């Protein structure tokens, strides 16, 4: 069948029921758009040691709804998985900011250790309560999820001041400023310890360079403040530089974090992989997400040697949007897609990812956070329509 | 009557001599001397009542063998209490303490203030930026307290004290009030560093209660970064500990065009040093290509600090106009002019406005 007659058959059939889908399908078939759609799929690096719970051909994953928009996002993902017949069972475990006992966290950890994989909403940290520990942080540390990875790239039709961004933020996820070790030396004098270990630096650097090699990335930029924190960041910079010599195919350079922030808002296209310790990672990843269009678009992956947890990139609870059918489901849906890819279900992952791309780029259904007027449910309904087309293609 | 006249006269003379303020000028290295000279000329044209005391801050060896700022420089600063500083080259060598750090410690310049405003005529991807970052300048992550606990395990200490946090919070609200700003946002990460940033936040909240006319908000550092690059107009004055301030102030500078157009002030209880925060640009030094805007706007901040608001306004307006309408601006501003032509343009505008 020539593409023309295919289109006309498609057009005739779907015009009756899915005219919008047909238009966007045609619109999305140009080469540049194909490239963008491919980029939207985002690669996910599975570690060799990872163990998944797989019984009877189905995987089980832990699901933590969290606070704010987490629960409603999870409902959408559940429906999407059902629609696409994804062979994944979702084991919901309660863990939110409600002051329930320590057992909640233990239960969540046991479940994730058993399943190997989790999809997570963000849990609010009530920092005014001195006994309350950040549960997000506790999870990361207990599961030793040492690498946080965000793929921040330009998506066509999303309003943004910058174009052609395609970078990966790789951030150390367990130590540094997030050690949670603080004390009051005397009244009114507080010390907070930033701990940096050679062991963790080694792991995160190797992760970054391996990622670069596997996905054909050209450059790794180490972001640091070694001029001021000579020991902590100095060690990081030194080790990253040493390791770079082992990966001669990858270009390596470094940049001080304040300059990196400035460079990001002036010319973000210069960056490829950005590698850094915990706190700077927090800053840089949020800047990068803001540059490509906001917190609703980017997903975040957390990897350890044995476990992986998938969530939104900027880890917001979105409490102001909860229950209003207004939140952008993209980052959450992409997180679930990342998870499917990690588990090896790339066909299902592609179906969902490509359909979501068509909703955003072809149909241009944008929620208010990216300048549109669509509701979450409208986007999800459109997603189903595209998925139906994609699934039929697979048959 | 004679004694009364004499008394009036002596008061008059004292007034006249105290009308002219002396300011320590550190021209700096690289393009420093050129841009400092621009500022001096512009001040002259604006008839600003400032007399300059230029000093050379090349470190000398002290009695203990350590390299430090020449004592004469310190004396002058104590005397004048106000300084204007150009860019300094980072000296390479052991035993030398960073000059910036030395000055900051000597005069307890606890507040670093950086107003970032979009310049008409210097277009960036962001319009309508008008934020001021106020950064605690003495402690926090820059305490320099680090050690190797055991092999391969490094520990850096971030120090937050009630006193310093209270001081900076108070400064932020005072600044907001005196400059007619509407809102102060405390930037923190108390969800992660609950004791240290929690203490900082508490001090901000306490100070906020004393200034009911100023709106007070709290925001996570990452949220501010996320929002700032999407819509900077939602922020006004930001107050934060040292490291966050360092990064955010550079981020904001990037929004309006970089360090070449951003002023900066370091304020203490009794003294203040205003400076340009860009580099020495040795590759263009001596070629009349340098852009004096950053140093000039810093000197305008200085004038406002000294309550010479009329002169500040005159110079600032001339500078903005020269960037917005003029054709004499330097290359980095998109013009074909030189440092001299740009300076002369500003001078002409000042003289015409009289």
From TrEMBL, chain A:
GO biological process: isocitrate metabolic process; tricarboxylic acid cycle
Keywords linked to the UniProt accession: Mitochondrion, Transit peptide, Tricarboxylic acid cycle
Main location: mitochondrion
Alphabetized GO MF terms: magnesium ion binding; NAD binding; oxidoreductase activity, acting on the CH-OH group of donors, NAD or NADP as acceptor
Isopropylmalate dehydrogenase-like domain segment(s): 60-383
Subcellular localization: Mitochondrion
The keyword NAD belongs to this UniProt entry's keyword annotation: no
Domain of life: Eukaryota
The keyword Mitochondrion belongs to this UniProt entry's keyword annotation: yes
InterPro entries: IsoCit/isopropylmalate_DH_CS (IPR019818), Isocitrate_DH_NAD (IPR004434), IsoPropMal-DH-like_dom (IPR024084)
Protein name: Isocitrate dehydrogenase [NAD] subunit, mitochondrial
UniProtKB/TrEMBL annotation, chain B:
A GO biological process held by the record: isocitrate metabolic process
Cofactor(s) it depends on: Mg(2+); Mn(2+)
Name of the featured protein: Isocitrate dehydrogenase [NAD] subunit, mitochondrial
Chief location category: mitochondrion
Family in the record: Belongs to the isocitrate and isopropylmalate dehydrogenases family.
Record's GO cellular component terms: mitochondrion
Quaternary assembly: Heterooligomer of subunits alpha, beta, and gamma in the apparent ratio of 2:1:1.
NCBIfam families reported for this sequence: mito_nad_idh (TIGR00175)
């Amino acid at each position: 069948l020539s593409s023309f007659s295919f289109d006309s058959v498609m057009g005739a059939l779907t015009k009756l029921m899915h005219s919008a889908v047909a238009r966007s399908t045609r619109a999305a078939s140009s080469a540049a758009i194909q490239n963008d759609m491919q980029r939207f799929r985002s690669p996910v690096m599975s570690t060799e040691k990872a163990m998944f719970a797989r019984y009877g051909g189905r995987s089980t994953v832990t699901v933590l709804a969290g606070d704010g928009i987490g629960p409603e996002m999870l409902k959408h993902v559940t429906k999407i998985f059902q629609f696409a017949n994804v062979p994944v069972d979702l084991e919901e475990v309660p863990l939110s900011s409600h002051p329930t006992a320590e057992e909640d966290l233990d239960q969540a950890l046991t479940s994730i250790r058993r399943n190997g994989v989790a999809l997570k909403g963000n849990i609010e940290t009530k920092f005014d309560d001195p006994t309350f520990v950040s549960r997000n942080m506790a999870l990361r540390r207990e599961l030793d999820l040492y690498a946080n990875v965000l793929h921040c790239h330009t998506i066509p039709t999303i309003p943004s001041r910058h174009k052609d961004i395609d970078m990966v933020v790789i951030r150390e996820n367990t130590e540094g400023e997030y050690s949670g070790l603080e004390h009051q030396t005397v009244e009114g004098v507080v010390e907070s310890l930033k701990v940096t270990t050679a062991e963790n630096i080694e792991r995160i650097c190797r992760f970054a360079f391996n990622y670069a090699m596997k996905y054909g990335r050209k450059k790794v930029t180490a972001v640091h403040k070694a001029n001021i924190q000579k020991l902590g960041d100095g060690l990081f910079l030194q080790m990253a530089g040493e390791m770079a010599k082992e990966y001669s195919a990858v270009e390596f350079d470094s940049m001080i974090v304040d300059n990196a922030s400035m460079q990001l808002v002036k010319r973000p296209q210069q960056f490829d992989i950005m590698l850094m310790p915990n706190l700077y990672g927090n800053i840089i990843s949020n800047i990068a997400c803001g540059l490509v269009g906001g917190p609703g678009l980017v997903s975040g992956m957390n990897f350890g040697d044995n476990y992986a947890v998938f969530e939104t990139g900027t880890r917001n609870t979105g409490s102001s949007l909860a229950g209003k059918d207004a939140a952008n489901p993209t980052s959450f849906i992409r997180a679930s897609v990342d998870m499917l890819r990690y588990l090896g279900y790339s066909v299902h992952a592609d179906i969902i990812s490509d359909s979501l791309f068509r909703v955003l780029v072809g149909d241009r259904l944008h929620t208010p956070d990216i300048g549109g007027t669509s509701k979450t449910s409208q986007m999800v309904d459109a997603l189903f329509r595209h998925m139906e087309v994609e699934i039929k293609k697979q048959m | 009557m004679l004694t009364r006249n004499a008394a009036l006269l002596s008061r008059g003379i004292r007034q006249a001599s105290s009308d002219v303020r002396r300011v320590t000028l550190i021209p700096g290295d690289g393009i420093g001397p050129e841009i400092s000279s621009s500022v001096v000329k512009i001040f002259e044209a604006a008839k600003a009542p400032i007399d300059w005391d230029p000093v050379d801050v090349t470190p000398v060896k002290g009695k203990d063998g350590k390299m430090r700022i020449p004592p004469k420089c310190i004396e002058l600063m104590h005397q004048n209490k106000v300084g204007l500083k150009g860019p300094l080259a980072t000296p390479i060598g052991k035993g030398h303490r960073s000059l910036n750090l030395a000055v900051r410690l000597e005069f307890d310049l606890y507040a670093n203030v950086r107003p970032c405003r979009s310049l008409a005529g210097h277009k960036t991807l962001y319009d309508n930026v008008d934020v001021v970052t106020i950064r605690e300048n003495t402690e926090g992550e820059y305490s320099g307290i680090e050690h190797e606990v055991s092999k391969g395990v490094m520990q850096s200490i971030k120090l937050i004290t009630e006193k310093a946090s209270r001081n900076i919070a108070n400064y932020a609200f005072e600044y907001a009030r005196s400059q007619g700003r509407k809102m102060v946002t405390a930037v923190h990460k108390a969800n992660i560093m609950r004791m240290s940033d929690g203490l900082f936040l508490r001090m901000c909240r306490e100070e906020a209660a004393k200034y009911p006319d100023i709106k007070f908000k709290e925001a996570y550092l990452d949220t501010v970064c996320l929002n700032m690059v999407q819509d900077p107009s939602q922020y006004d004055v930001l107050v934060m500990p040292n490291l966050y301030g360092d990064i955010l102030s550079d981020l904001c500078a990037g929004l309006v065009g970089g360090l070449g157009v951003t002023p900066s002030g370091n304020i203490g209880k009794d003294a203040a040093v205003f400076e340009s925060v860009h580099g020495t640009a040795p590759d263009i030094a001596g070629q009349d290509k340098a852009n004096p805007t950053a140093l000039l706007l810093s000197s305008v901040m200085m004038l406002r600090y000294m309550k010479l608001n009329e002169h500040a306004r005159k110079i600032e307006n001339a500078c903005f106009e020269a960037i917005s309408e003029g054709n004499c601006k330097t290359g980095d501003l998109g013009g074909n002019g030189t440092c001299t032509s740009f300076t002369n343009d500003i001078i002409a505008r000042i003289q015409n406005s009289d």
